[in-house]
Design brief:
The protein is mainly α. The chain has helices at about 1-5, 10-30, 30-45, 45-60, 60-65, 70-95. The protein has two domains: about 1-45; about 45-99, no CATH class.
Length: about 100
């Protein structure tokens, strides 16, 4: 992101920011494997916010021009996005119904 921000972030700051969460998990004494799995579950809820616009943008001839996705590719990508959304909804249902 530093290219977009047009600011240079020192390497030691980047390493500190990326390593701090794992060091906190180890320092507090949490189970690293369980914490990693839970972090991936949380990250899965962000996937639709990236995938759905990506499918929409890459299937738009106005945006992509000649490089627009084929119909089969758009259908498959939309199907994958729908599956991710459905699985996330199922996960939320399981969490809130203690299933």
């Amino acid at each position: 992101m530093q290219g977009f921000l047009e600011r240079h972030i020192p390497v030691w700051v980047r390493r500190l920011v990326t390593m701090a969460p794992s060091l906190i998990v180890i320092g507090v004494g949490l189970d690293p494997t369980h914490t990693l799995v839970m972090s991936q579950v949380v990250l899965s809820f962000g996937l639709p916010f990236a995938i759905i616009p990506l499918v929409m943008f890459t299937s738009s001839k106005d945006i992509m021009g000649d490089l627009v996705n084929q119909l089969q590719t758009t259908f498959l990508a939309g199907l994958v996005a729908a599956i991710i959304v459905i699985l996330n909804c199922y996960l939320l249902f399981q969490i809130f119904t203690a299933g």
